[in-house]
Amino acid sequence: MDYFSAIRAFLFAAELGSFSKAANRIDVKTSTVSRYVSELERDLGIALFNRSTRGLVLTEGGRVFREHAVVVIKTLDDAREITSSLNTSPRGLLRVTMPRSFGLRHVIRHLPEFMDRYPKIDVDAVMTDDTINVIDSGIDLAIRIGVLPDSQLMARQLAVQRRIVCASPAYVAQNGTPAAPDDLATHAALRSPLAADDRWLFFHRARGAKAVEAAVQLHGRLRVDDVEALIALALAGRGIALLPTWAIGAALRDGKLVHLLPEWDVQPTRAAPAIWAVYPRKKTVSSKVRTFIDFYTAVFNQKGYWES
């Protein structure tokens, strides 16, 4: 018996509750999965599953075996990944997740170049604004934006995230141009319902200050938790928005949005946000993960990239 293949088949059958689904996952016949499990049961001298028309249910022995088998397979996978990371030619399947809007604008557009440069790497790109548990979901790498919470994950900064205050020319023509942060108190602000409070923190660039120079309380009838929706509302002249430069470079260049208070840096929180690559903590980072991070770090830090 190929013990490791049998254990993998058993683990997938336990996860999916079906021999046929496990077979599809590992691309073998259903009879092969059934045989693997039967051989394990003979070797262990105990039934691993209770079988019924509704599917498979682990026995007590099956639950105990699964708990330890998961550790064995993870150790084997880690050993293979650490060893393969020494290979100068990155290879294998890279599963990466990213926020949808950012991913479409700045990851997917460069993915053909990445895959041409590294033909032995296959990519599964998961586009979602949900925060996925990278370990439980088998994700190799997550791109996250903002201020990272404390976690057991490793993180590497891909780029600084800069936000700017902006509005449409029509809004400015109708409501005037704020000359100082305090002037925003009389304007309609497009706000986020996810913000801890309705304030923007301003730092005067010319003075080089990193203490808060102005904390402006916001007012406005619209609160939206989506970047694309905020952009659409700003373009429609519904108010002043604080938007990331990665999302509005084209709109600024084409004159559809106007940069307001350009001498000020602005943040919604005291902690400076950034664009991050986050990945499980391991003794050695696999070459496919390291290559992806290095590639996009170089792309994002090209001079003038965000403006273009």
UniProtKB/TrEMBL annotation:
SUPFAM superfamilies with a match to the protein in the record: Periplasmic binding protein-like II, Winged helix' DNA-binding domain
Keywords: DNA-binding, Transcription, Transcription regulation
GO molecular function, one term: DNA-binding transcription factor activity
Domain HTH lysR-type positions: 1-59
Family matches, as Gene3D superfamilies: 3.40.190.290, Winged helix-like DNA-binding domain superfamily/Winged helix DNA-binding domain (1.10.10.10)
Superkingdom of this protein's organism: Bacteria
Keyword match Transcription: yes
Family statement drawn from the similarity comment of this UniProt entry: Belongs to the LysR transcriptional regulatory family.
Protein name, per record: LysR family transcriptional regulator
Organism of this sequence: Paraburkholderia hospita
